[in-house]
Structures are given as structure tokens and as C-alpha cells.
Specification:
alpha/beta, about 375 residues
């Protein structure tokens, strides 16, 4: 068995967890199980189960496993007990917040993967120390962004570290894109709209055609929106790729108020590129790198309001010829590199070179 312990819930912006689990299951030809907390505000719907196709087991706690330390401790203890019962061959720990499950288990998996979703160093104690303490139980760590490796590597000692981008789409999804001249000529913004998504500035983007999708933290953000901006609410997770493909542009960016957001490794970036939808980005280092290397979008010069607005204006004024070239670049990048198969190949190569190949299964 291959088991992953998550601190969040599938279907709520973390597709890299079930995707990695599914890939490992296929590679080793073993059953898989995703363990996650049962969070009231993130229900496990039939739509989510169908979309990911991996078995999911939720752990119910008396206290909120996200918001309260007591809830997290309950969750970790229950997850550790489940691991000791099921004794998986491969264990994936998906975040620093659940790293201390390694201190509580008696079972020793053959292979333990730390899938770093967020920077441990971005958080206050005891999170960084939990990672440092548990690093000798980790076989290999994977990070989605190269600056994050530099920041968190000191916590991991001699643990091998791999860079695997959060490209969770299949290479063949590049064939599903719509023609460049058959798009809604607007910028799509999918987010939990609030301070972190620059939501306080929406009413200042008064001449830019923008469509908003997702949850709104404060309904006042929708008050006084200019006529150029429309809000469409929440779209089902399985429907989002279809909706995204119909747009001309996708905005990707977060307020750089902490290390995780400054050095963002955005799923939305790769999902947009795979949909053949060029991006308008805030200048997160990975966004800049991808736009420069593959020609898949436009990056703002800075994180300030005027720079973001100028980048959006630049996008909607792009000539049809230049826009079509960006769409072609999105398709090529997805076919060749920015897909789940190419990224898993990084881990697969390491596994085979380090004695963890699929044919090394123990009796």
C-alpha cells in the first residue's frame, strides 16, 4: 500500500497530492489511500471523489484540525494509528504541519516522501523544528519551487531534494484547447477573493474586462465594482477546466505578504497553460521564469496596483497574432514539460537510481 497524509482536503486547490499518490500507485502497482482531516467547510463531495479517482479516508476530530492546535494533535494521533495498522510500503507526508506524524508511528515504511506544499520556515515554532527533527525519517523531499528549496533545505540535513513543478495536468490535455480566436475576450480570476488575491483593488481596475470566480471572503469586496467586472460565484471543481478553456486570459497572483505567497508555486499557472489560456501574472519568481522560458503570458513589473493594472491592460491590447503565438506556446509547453508525466519522471528517475525502483518490492 501507498498512503499519503495530508493536512488539507482534495478538491480545494491542492491537486498535486492525489495526483502524486495516483502516479505512485500506478508506478508500484499498489493500492493507495489518501488520509485527510474532515473539515466542515471543505466537504468531500461525490464530484471530488470522481474527479481524482483515489480512495480518500477522512479523520473526524473533536476540534478543527486546521484552526486549532488541539485539533491538529488529534488528527496526527489518529493518522499515526492508521499508518501503524495499515503498514504502507510507501508513506507520503504532504506538509510540514503533519510532519510530526513520523515521530508517532512505530511502522517504518520502505520509502518516505516529504511533499513540501508550503515553506516550513515561513511559520513560527514549532513547525520548522518538527521538520528538522523528522528529517532523518524522510527518504526524499520534493519541492515545487526552487527558491523554496534554498530556504527550507537547512532543515532537511542530508535528505535528497528534488524539484517537481506543480504541473498536475496530463500531457494530452494540451490537445483540448480552443482556437485562439474562439475565446471570451476577458480575464478570468479564480481565487478565494480577499486581501491575498488583491481583492481590495478590484474596484480600481475600472476599464479592464474581468470575470471573477470563487468564494468571496467579504461581500463588501463586490460592492462598487465597475461595470467591466462580473462575479460568477463558485464553479464545481470538475467544471473549472471547461470554463477556463473558454477564456482569453487567466490572472495568477497573490499578495506577497509572506514567504509562501512571494515564492508561490501556483497550480493555477499550470492549469491555465494546459488549457491554452495565456496568463497575466504577478511577478512571483516562478511565474517570471515560466513566462520567459516558454512565452506563455505577461508578468507585471511589480506587485503594486498600477503595475498589475498595466499588465492586464497590456494583455487585453495584445494583437491577435501575438496572442495566437502565446496560445501555441502554452500547448507546446504542456505537451513537452509542464505536465504530470514529465514532472513525475524526475521522481521516477531518482527512485530507480537510488534502489527504489518498482521491481525492488519486498516480499
Amino acid at each position: 500500500m501507498i498512503l499519503a497524509v495530508s493536512d488539507t482536503c482534495a478538491g480545494y486547490s491542492t491537486p498535486q497530492i492525489p495526483v502524486l499518490l495516483d502516479q505512485l500507485g500506478q508506478y508500484y502497482a499498489e493500492e493507495v489511500l489518501l488520509v485527510e482531516p474532515d473539515l466542515a467547510n471543505r466537504p468531500l463531495t461525490p464530484d471530488i471523489r470522481r474527479h481524482f479517482g483515489v480512495p480518500i479516508q477522512r479523520i473526524v476530530t473533536d476540534h478543527d484540525a486546521h484552526a486549532l492546535a488541539s485539533g491538529r494533535e488529534e488528527y496526527i494521533a489518529a493518522a499515526a494509528q492508521l499508518i501503524d495498522t495499515l503498514q504502507p510500503r510507501v508513506l507520503v507526508v504532504t506538509c510540514a504541519f503533519v510532519m510530526d506524524v513520523l515521530d508517532q508511528i512505530q511502522h517504518r515504511p520502505e520509502l518516505t516522501i516529504y511533499q513540501s506544499l508550503e515553506l516550513a520556515q515561513a511559520y513560527s515554532p514549532p513547525i520548522p523544528e518538527q521538520v528538522r527533527r523528522a528529517c532523518n525519517r524522510v527518504t526524499v523531499a520534493i519541492f515545487p519551487e526552487r527558491n523554496r528549496i534554498d530556504i527550507d533545505a537547512p532543515l532537511l540535513g542530508d535528505t535528497p531534494i528534488l524539484l517537481m513543478l506543480n504541473a498536475t495536468v496530463r500531457a494530452d490535455e494540451a490537445e483540448l484547447i480552443l482556437p485562439a480566436d474562439n475565446r471570451i475576450q476577458r480575464i478570468m480570476i479564480t481565487a478565494r477573493h480577499g486581501v491575498d488575491s488583491f481583492g481590495l483593488w478590484y474596484n480600481l481596475f475600472n476599464d479592464i474586462p474581468i470575470d471573477l470566480f470563487g468564494k468571496v471572503d467579504d461581500s463588501r469586496l463586490l460592492t462598487g465594482l465597475p461595470p467591466s467586472i462580473r462575479y460568477f460565484g463558485i464553479v464545481a471543481y470538475s467544471e473549472l477546466p471547461r470554463v477556463r478553456r473558454s477564456y482569453a486570459w487567466s490572472f495568477v497572483g497573490w499578495n506577497p505578504s509572506n514567504l509562501n505567497q512571494r515564492f508561490a508555486a501556483p497550480n493555477k499557472m499550470f492549469e491555465s497553460i494546459a488549457a491554452g489560456v495565456p496568463v497575466v501574472c504577478a511577478p512571483h519568481p516562478q511565474c517570471i521564469e515560466l513566462c520567459r522560458e516558454y512565452g506563455v503570458g505577461i508578468c507585471a513589473a511589480s506587485f503594486d496596483r498600477d503595475a498589475l493594472k498595466y499588465a492586464m491592460q497590456h494583455a487585453v491590447a495584445t494583437t491577435p497574432r501575438d496572442y495566437a503565438a502565446m496560445v501555441d506556446n502554452c500547448q507546446q509547453a504542456t505537451r513537452l514539460v509542464l505536465n504530470r508525466e514529465a514532472q513525475f519522471a524526475v521522481l521516477r528517475t531518482w527512485l530507480e537510481e537510488s534502489g527504489f525502483a518498482r521491481n525492488c518490492q519486498s516480499d
